[in-house]
Amino acid sequence: EAALLDALIARRAAGAAIAACEYGGEPGVPALFAPRFARALLDLEGDRGAKALLLREHDAAVLVPFPSGDLDVDTPEDWARASRMLEARHAEPR
To answer: What is the pTM of this model?
Structure first.
């Protein structure tokens, strides 16, 4: 959602070295990194992404809550669960 990305951008612009999402009790993506992390990001290998870097540099990160960030859709069952969750979320009064 745009509000999530706006929050990440605002925290990074305010000087956070890393602005990352928080879900499942840990930092995660999407995340924005200061230029000083460019080499570490370029050196990442495999399908693990920046998770190890986020965990290692946790003290440099400002976290933005992302309650549905740990939703992983890989199967038809996952899709059905995600659809139900999103329908319920949009049905809630704001």
So the answer is: 0.76
In 10-39, which positions are buried (b, 16+ CB within 10 angstroms) versus exposed (e)? ebbeeebbbbbbbbeeebbeebbbeeebee
DSSP states of 33-77 as a string? E-GGGHHHHHT--TT-TTHHHHHHTGGGEEEEE-TTTT----SHH
CB 57 within 8 A of CB 39: no
Instruction: Read off the pLDDT of residues 59-72 as tens digits, 9 standing for 90 and up.
Output: 999 999 998 787 77
Q: Are 68 and 23 in contact (CB under 8 A)?
A: yes
Amino acid, res. 76 = P
Burial class (CB in 10 A: 0-12, 13-18, 19+), 51: middle
